[in-house]
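Subject: Sanity check before I submit

Could someone independently write out the structure tokens for this chain? I want to compare against mine line by line before I put it in a report. The sequence has 258 residues.
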Amino acid sequence: MSATPSKPRKLPDEYDALVMKLTMKLKKEVGSEIAAFLLVGSVAQKNYIRGDSDCDFYLVIKKDRKNQVEILQKIAKIKAEFENDPQYSSILDLMVFFEEDLTEANVNVSSIVNWVHIWTGQQGELKIGSENPFMKLKVTEANLKKGATQMCLDNVFLMRDGFLNTHPGNEDELAFYGSDAAIACAQALLIFMGEKGFNRYNVPELFAEKVKIKADPKVVIDARDYRLGAKLDNPIEFAEKCYDFGWAILEYMLKNIK
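---
Independent answer below. Compare away.
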């Protein structure tokens, strides 16, 4: 009797492999120091674009500060190992939080942890740990607006730093940072307005439909298309438009936050 043929196995793509390998490595090397390790963002939501989306992780370190420098150094070594691997270097995005900072009081005064991080963490997929520490906080609409404003501000500053630090001849690098920041600013405004069911690739259409402020929606459409491989006639001019786009959004948010 012939054996029943088994179903073909789905080979893991680089995102699946990164999640599996990084989780195993962290668990082995610093597992006892981790309060939680989560997969977040588009990969967790299964709506990522292969070859462009980052694979985003949140790592929360336990409360005891005594060994935090040593723990951070261990994590940095692990992170560098994956960043030096060509398969993962362009997709890995790891944010590290400290458990004691995930309180309402600390989030309200922090420039590192904001309410969008908390909200994003609550949507995450737990890989290490028994509970999701982000779930301990209640995210109100007012808090989410604060976090969205901080998110936009951070990305405007990212573009500003790009203009200051990009060397002549690296215009495409500046355009890349501009496109990434413009999309993030558009996302921040949608969150500010109460929109939640979107990803970075349908942001342009949703932005054009929902947003009625003085910010050209074509900028975020061009930013998305550039990230997906479209060519730019003038990268510097495009980066300047992204910068103006981000500022228009930030000014609106600052005027309308309560």
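---
OP: Matches mine. For the report I'm noting this point. The chain is about 55% helix and 10% strand.
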